[in-house]
Design a protein that fits this description.
about 700 residues, alpha/beta, 8-stranded mixed beta barrel, binds ligand C2E, binds calcium ion
């Protein structure tokens, strides 16, 4: 569940990032489009403005030249320039001034006197105290054959930014003065800025020295403006050069209008959409987070919540968890349908609520396990306090469709220490593993500190790994323990016992046999040992006189095919069937006795011999004695070992012998560890003896005793 939670967190983050990135991309593209749509206009405006400026300047140059030509004519025809013509010239100047909005101050400056003629008449240099002949526009015109356009400068009278167009006048090729006109930039600016309809654009014109001739900010006119650099192009601006005037034109999109265009409704919808998505995701997160905490089925808190609750209690030195597992739900499902399994669990949860109301928190950690956590933290104390309810939990009836069904329940009470509480996230799955493992055992209630159980599981796991490795590396070998005839001391029979070769040691199989049975490896192991032992027999017993006894795991005997496999291995080596004894043990593991009987009878018909191992232990030994037509019984070693010390064992052995004799069976006594035991057995009616005193299991066949 933790990983599910992480997945949905990651998914939420991814969705938010995708929406955010999407919005940003759309935003940027939108901005780009807005700039692009202006870009086309920039060019049009730049080019048309450039033409307008050229036209304007050209018109003004024409006026100036006309005025110049007029003056030249007058100069040509009269010697006394000032006598009658001034009035006439002033009038012409005035007319030109008023004919054009931009042209002002048309005047003629006389080289000889420094006096000037304006639209208002003669200005005496002495009165005005300004000698125009020293001005740049005058000096430049003097050296040029054509009209001269000055750089922007501030007019000496008005201090307003202007440019001056000037033109030299000659009388019979002699320079006599300069005619000039001012163009105030404010006027030109006003006129030109209003001549285009693209109010989304800003228009700039710069003189070759970088001074602003046209600028949206009036105060910048005549000054070096910051826009006069290539950065403007990066901001989406467009530069062109007017080659006639040697002026530079720049058109820039207006930042405010651009933003207005971008921040339109569509983008608003995107942003609102983004916010709604975020809110929905947060709500979904909240909903899902809640669904982690409460089981849909039982309404109890979940495993996720349990772990979080325990983590919150990590300050505790210990705490107790009671696991309640429903062992069997299959029969409910088969009999009443899967839906009724749900009803069963809901009703069981209800029972737990009643039983532990207020005393502990109840969790539904999966579809068959519940956990109750307690405030008290000592498992013995809790065990005492809940013992009256354990019975009810285990033996209650749950009603389904008016039928009362007995709950088959397994309980585990664990006490966790602080370290285990602290690492509960990693530790809890181990607890669940223990519960799962114990659930299939014989006990119905287990309690204690869990580490021991976990260690058991882990050591079993290690054993299985070890066994699997040994199988893979072919390190399982047969050992042989002799059985001697009690009268003649002759050795004719050997019991085959498995050993695991581990470096220089041969390990006894006991713990591994149990693992092998649990993990379904036993059949393969037994067949492997059988094969090796028989192969060995054919080498050392060419005449086929010796009898080998093999241990058959009770679990293998449930598989009807198993004995066929055994038989086919024996036949492969052509060993006489009467020289094979199959020892049946762990009879409580045999599931279908009728099936086994059929098989045994079939094999007996082809001369195989059978023996009941560990006779006297386990239950219903006598039942099997009566039902399975065996040839030998092997009295369990635990009765033989201390037959001289414990009278009751002697009586028990005697009665087993009497019983076996009634069935005409051969009797083997195992665990004959010393001469005293052998002496006792010799007085009894035993046929064969086996044990360390006779001979230990060995890789070679021991011939004499
Ligand atoms: P088991 O069939 O009762 O075998 C006799 C066990 O007693 C053997 O232990 C043997 O070494 C031991 N033993 C023999 N003489 C004495 C004695 O005088 N005193 C004492 N205390 N013990 C004696 P082992 O070899 O460790 O085998 C243990 C059990 O494992 C066997 O009990 C048998 O049930 C099972 N087993 C052994 N080999 C195989 C095998 O290849 N397949 C199967 N399925 N089970 C096997
Ligand atoms: Ca045996
Ligand atoms: Ca035995």
């Amino acid at each position: 569940m933790d990983s599910r939670e992480n997945i949905h967190r990651i998914a939420s983050i991814i969705i938010i990032v995708v929406i955010l990135v999407g919005t940003v991309i759309i935003h940027m593209n939108y901005e780009k489009n807005a700039v692009n749509s202006l870009q086309g206009n920039l060019k049009i405006v730049a080019e048309s403005t450039s033409t307008s400026i050229s036209k304007q300047i050209c018109t003004n140059q024409c006026y100036l030249k006309m005025a110049g030509n007029l003056l030249s004519n007058i100069f040509e025809n009269t010697d006394d320039f000032y006598s009658e013509n001034v009035k006439h010239i002033s009038k012409v100047f005035e007319e030109v001034n008023s004919a054009d909005n931009i042209v002002t101050n048309l005047c003629f400056v006389d080289e000889a006197t420094g006096n000037s003629i304006t639209s208002k008449g003669i200005f005496n240099m002495k009165d005005s105290k300004i000698d125009y002949r020293t001005r740049n526009w005058y000096v430049e015109a003097k050296t040029s054959k054509n009209t001269v356009i000055s750089d922007a400068y501030n007019d000496i009278n008005t201090d307003k930014p202007c440019i001056t167009i000037s033109y030299a006048i000659y009388k019979k090729n002699k320079f006599v003065g300069v005619v000039a006109e001012d163009m105030f930039l404010e006027n030109m600016n006003y006129y030109l800025l209003n001549s285009h309809n693209y109010n989304a654009l800003n228009l700039y014109v710069f003189s070759p020295t970088g001074k602003a001739i046209i600028h949206p900010d009036k105060n910048m006119l005549g000054k070096i403006a910051p826009e006069n650099n290539t950065d403007s192009e990066d901001r989406g601006g467009y530069f062109i050069q007017n080659y006639e005037l040697n002026w530079k034109l720049l058109v820039l999109p207006r930042a405010d209008i651009l933003n207005k265009k971008i921040n339109n409704n569509l983008l608003m919808i995107f942003y609102i959409g983004f916010i709604i998505c975020c809110i929905l995701l947060i709500a979904a997160n909240y909903y899902i987070a809640n669904s982690y905490k409460i089981s849909n089925l039982t309404g109890l808190n979940t495993r996720y919540k349990l772990i979080n609750d325990v983590i919150r209690k990590s300050y505790l030195s210990s705490t107790c968890l009671l696991f309640i597992s429903i062992k069997e739900l299959n029969s409910v499902s088969i009999e009443y349908g899967y839906n009724e399994v749900k009803t069963f669990l809901i009703n069981y949860a209800e029972l737990l609520r009643k039983l532990f109301n207020g005393e502990g928190d109840i969790y539904s950690i999966n579809e068959r396990d519940f956990v109750v956590t307690f405030k008290s933290s000592n498992y013995e104390e809790i065990f005492d306090s809940i013992s009256n309810r354990i019975f009810e939990m285990k033996h209650c009836n749950i009603t389904i469709k008016n039928d009362d069904i007995k709950a088959d329940v397994f309980l585990t009470l664990f006490e966790l220490n602080r370290q285990e509480i602290k690492s509960i996230k990693a530790y809890f799955p181990k607890l669940e593993n223990v519960v799962k493992d114990l659930r299939n055992g014989k006990e119905s209630f287990v309690y204690g500190k869990p580490q021991q159980f976990i260690n058991d599981i882990e050591s079993r796991k290690r054993k299985v790994m070890f066994l699997k490795k040994a199988i893979k590396e072919d390190r399982l070998v047969p050992f042989f323990q002799p059985l001697a005839d009690i009268k003649t001391h002759e050795i004719q029979i050997y019991e085959v016992l498995m050993r695991i070769k581990d470096k220089d040691n041969f390990l006894a199989p006991y713990p591994y046999i149990i693992m092998a049975e649990k993990y379904n490896l036993i059949q393969d192991i037994d067949l492997m040992i059988l094969n090796k032992a028989i192969e060995y027999k054919t080498k050392v017993d060419k005449e086929d006189k010796i009898i080998f006894a093999f241990n058959m795991s009770g679990k293998s005997l449930n598989d009807s095919n198993y004995l066929n496999k055994v038989s086919s291995i024996i036949d492969k080596y052509n060993v006489k069937h009467e020289n094979i004894i199959l020892e049946i043990t762990e009879t409580q593991n045999i599931e279908n006795i009728d099936e086994l009987l059929k098989l045994v009878n079939k094999l007996k018909k082809s001369n195989y011999k059978f023996s009941i191992d560990d006779f006297g232990t386990g239950f219903s030994s006598i039942y099997y004695l009566k039902n399975i037509p065996v040839d030998y019984i092997k009295i369990d070693g635990s009765f033989i070992k201390d037959i001289n010390e414990k009278k009751e064992n002697l009586y028990l052995v005697k009665s087993i012998i009497n019983m076996a004799k009634a069935f005409e069976l051969k009797i083997v006594a195992e665990f004959v560890e010393n001469k005293g035991i052998l002496d006792t057995l010799e007085k009894l009616d035993v046929d064969y003896v086996q044990g360390y005193y006779i001979g230990k299991p060995s890789s070679e066949l021991q011939k004499v005793f």
